Amino acid sequence: MATQDIIARSATTTSASSIRQVEEVAKLIDVSKCIGCKACQVACSEWNDLRDDVGQNHGTYDNPADLTADSWTLMRFTEHENAVGDLEWLIRKDGCMHCAEPGCLKACPSPGAIVQHANGIVDFNQDHCIGCGYCITGCPFNIPRISQKDSKAYKCTLCSDRVSVGLEPACVKTCPTGAITFGTKEDMKHHAEERIVDLKSRGYENAGLYDPAGVGGTHVMYVLHHADKPALYNDLPNDPAVSPMVSLWKGITKPLSLMAMGAAVLAGFFHYVRVGPNRADEEDEAHHEAAVEQVKKKSNDASVKTFDPNQR
Amino acid sequence: MTNTWTDIRNANLILVMGGNAAEAHPCGFKWVTEAKAHNKARLIVVDPRYTRTASVSDYYAPIRTGSDIAFLGGLINYLIANDKIQHEYVRNYTDVSFIVNEGFTFEDGLFSGYNAEKRTYSDKSTWSYEKGADGFAKVDPTLEHPRCVFQLMKKHYSRYTPEVASNICGMPQDRMLKIWEEIAETSQPGKTMTILYALGWTQHSIGAQIIRTAAMVQLLLGNIGLPGGGVNALRGHSNIQGLTDLGLLSNLLPGYMTLAGDAEQDFNAYIAKRALKPLRPGQMSYWQNYGKFHVSLMKAWYADVATAENNWCYDYLPKLDVPGAGYDVLKMFDMMSRGEVRGYFCQGFNPIASLPDKNRVVAAMAKLKWLVIMDPLATETSEFWRNAGEFNNVDTASIQTEVFRLPTTCFAEEDGSLVNSSRWLQWHWKGAEAPGEARTDVAIMSELFLMLRERYRNEGGVYPDPILSLNWPYKIAHEPSPEELAKEFNGYAVKDVTDATGAVVAKAGQQLSGFAQLKDDGSTASGCWIFCGSWTEQGNQMARRDNSDPYGVGQNLGWAWAWPMNRRILYNRASADPSGKPWGPDKKLVWWNGKNWGGADVPDFKPDSAPEAGMNPFIMNPEGVARFFAVDKMAEGPFPEHYEPFETPIGVNPMHPKNDKVISSPVARVLPTVWESFGKADKFPYAATTYRLTEHFHFWTKHCRLNAIIQPEQFVEIGEVLAQEKGIAAGDKVRVSSKRGYIVAVAVVTKRIKPLQVNGQTVHQIGIPLHWGFSGLTRHGYLTNTLVPFVGDGNTQTPESKSFLVNVEKA
């Protein structure tokens, strides 16, 4: 089916359709209104029919402990003591940011496995996913995860199925405090401005909108009390940008790389003909495991709870 | 709630204390965010822990669990000393001018009339007003009489200086003063503060008095009856408000009528004692109508059998043979432990998880001959006999109790009404058919009743009349419909009902439109007088879903139906000044328009009583005004006083360091064998508190996969300082023990719990959430209430689950 609203497609050079007049959408997460109730996590699982494992408590409120192929969003809790010694419990809903310049899409080698819709949603098409994990490398926010069930990459779709029929994403619908809102990106920016005025009136001088230019802006934005220090919010990148390696891959080196890939395929073919089928060695397996069990590295700040699921 | 969920948006200041609204009431909490976003409201949180609510607050201060009266008493002193009170409101709408009897004293932590042997105030006669020759209470409008309520209150709380309060609460004095200062600003007539609380205040041996102190603060500030004001209890179950409304406590009848005591065999004396006459001229004293409510209830229950000649079947009602809270659950389980209870119906209740001292409760249940469980879920209680290893280490072979499990529908599998915290009766419709053999609670209880009645009919028995005569008019006798029951609670005309002029206002058989139509001559029937108006001739008012808000003040009178009479804010006459004008332009609720009272809410007042008539807003009190001086209503005394929890980390009441009789509440009932189950700080040095998490609902949702995923495993919260002392890291397993037992859980090490300086020593607090057990889809765990002491509030017997002592070790 021709959707006519895909404006970018991974590993594809044909020009995108551009006839439709589609407004860009955005989800605005007001961190200052979020109580970390996790209703959005549950709504996401319900709408998308996801059931993660019942895990363990690792000594924090973060459960599940990290994003997985079955948990596309979660709350990250940070205890922060501010300059005057007052405690703040910063609770950030983590998930795909739907970048205007998506690093995942740029990095993806499989044609059409990652697409960008005209409304800004970046969506994975698992039919085309080869499970290479390059999207993880390409993502400045460390979001996609490879499923252990089918070895394909998954992440928040911004409920593209709901949005395409005029509904808000499931997390937005369920949020009890109105911390998550959804609309055109323009409207969300206006709403954010009002919120920032309110936050400044409450003493948060550096309140602001997180819509980072390094990735061309995002279609999931945050209102932060401390917009000058995004990293306070459980390592939200201060200046996210697509990795230079990915840019390099997409730019100058791509034709060369493709040639090299072609050569490798040929070499592989001759290897098969002459030697027989290849067996995966342990090192390859370990590498694959690392992509499957992406565990975000945290700083040594005591307020940031670190855990390693493999250690338990 | 005195006010209503949607009304929170009208507040200028929100104090969350004794609760954690964002955590436990995330949906209702939207009105707090609304008040902040569009009413520039500020949010202050006072809690032992920096909570989820605190995470979105403007200001937070820590407090030692169980010390709330010291904080609020200090605030009363601060407001009076700094003249931050709403003078016109306080003078006109409260009892400050009432003169108290001469013999009333308060010495060494005790009020007059204490009986040390019985641990109770056996003589409360001095806790009363001085009366004039006209029978009315004497008042001194100048407030200068040394025994007027204002002077007594001022003196009582003058002891609660900032130093004293801070010393008891462990709250830094600068934080305390900053909060008091901000609260004091709402004494301006056009400004209101709302107080949101929950079990963090009720679950103390002094819980009821904590809440009273909060009410006193709100009265001094003139914040009761106004939009955005009030003292608002956020109920823990969606229908627990309905439970108390319908009198499902052993000492109550529906609509907050009370069961007679053993000594009250005389019907007229029973009514007269409750139909209180006004204590001041021109006051309404609405309980004067008690007889009408009571007779209408008896007509609903006994129909034609109830007649004036037999005192409307008064003799059918049981008479309570114990004082106070009657057969509360602590008393029942204590009796059970002594083999005095043969069988137990456990309906929608998981006592081994919910009651304190789980090991004591399990031992008590093992003495039962039989136990019936009515529940949608396989609760821990239904398996109390099962050895679940360390989580429930019982000797199954020695437990002979026969357990019957009757699966019931859950609320989503039946039609009916739920009463929420706002007193709204909201009709709901079945969302799904119940699985398997589940049946409604109504069907199970009805069938049981019919079988019992049949046996009494056939076989006789001792005094079977109350059962044989019970009115049972339902079309399907074994399964009365929710509609039939709702109509009965509302009430109907038994005969034609006339008004004062003789005009017929309701024909025989018609639904009544409100409790003003109720009569004590047998012409009306009503199963719960406060619900009268919920299902009228106009149909089911609870099913209304019109959310329009014509005055723009969030009252939404067309949404469902609130008792009493669809009034959304209680005592709302107080939202206008004595002349009938609203106190402030954005606090307009009801006002006098020259002919009657009206406005955005239904007036909680006589609608045609002109301001000049001098009727006061607190129509349920015989005084007509609100009480600072609780007369004889409370077990502990007319003015709340700070007493330590029964397990105190400091071992002394700093208010009365020399009197060891008043370290803890001198009147809370301590059952035999419970004294020795209290621990002391030498072995159990840390102050613990229990609570719920937003990811779970009590012990239900651990049976749901999605809830289990987002909060999978039992944990306890420990401050960083204590964790460091003990060598405990986040994620370690720790053993938390009290004198009564232990649990093992994962340690969440946090900056959100700080050590407090209390009475010259450091007090560490431990936070213990309670959702896990030995059944369900979460990782199995211990029942948290294993740790909690078996003692309750002196008035309500609500267990002291929020303040007790534990030790913590690395497991």
Account of the 3D structure:
The complex is a heterodimer of chains A (312) and B (811). In chain A, 28% of the residues lie in helices and 16% in strands. With 312 residues, chain A is α+β, with helices and mostly antiparallel strands. In chain A, the strands form 4 sheets. Chain A has a 4-stranded mixed beta sheet. Chain A has a 3-stranded antiparallel beta sheet with strand order 1-5-6, with no helix packed on it. A two-stranded antiparallel ribbon of chain A has the order 3-4. The longest helix of chain A is centred in the C-terminal third of the chain and has 23 residues, at 253-275. Residues 283-312 of chain A have low confidence and may be disordered. Chain B has 811 residues and is an alpha/beta fold. Chain B folds into 3 domains: 5-238, Dimethylsulfoxide Reductase, domain 2 (3-Layer(aba) Sandwich); 239-291 and 303-419 and 423-472 and 543-567, Rossmann fold; 660-810, Barwin-like endoglucanases, CATH 2.40.40.20. In chain B, 22% of the residues lie in helices and 16% in strands. The mean pLDDT of chain B is 97.
Q: Give the neighbour order of strands across the main sheet of chain B.
A: 26-32-27-29-28-33
> How many structural domains of chain A?
1
> Quick check: average pLDDT of chain B?
97
Look up the CATH topology of the largest domain in chain B.
Answer: Rossmann fold
Written as H for each helix and E for each strand, in order along the chain, the element string of chain A is EEHEEHEEHEEHHEHEEHHH
Q: What is the general shape of chain B?
A: globular
Mean pLDDT of chain A: 86
Estimate the strand proportion of chain A. Answer: 15-25%
Looking at the chains present, what oligomeric state does this protein adopt? heterodimer
CATH architecture of chain A: 2-Layer Sandwich
Secondary-structure-derived class of chain A: alpha+beta
Which pair of protein chains has the largest interface, and what are the residue counts?
A: A-B, 46 and 48 residues
Strand content bin of chain B: 15-25%
Tally of helical segments of chain A: 9
Number of helices of chain B: 21
Shape of chain A: globular
CATH class annotation of chain A? Alpha Beta
Calculate Rg of chain A over CA atoms. 21 Å
Instruction: Tell me the major beta sheet of chain B.
Output: 6 strands, mixed, barrel
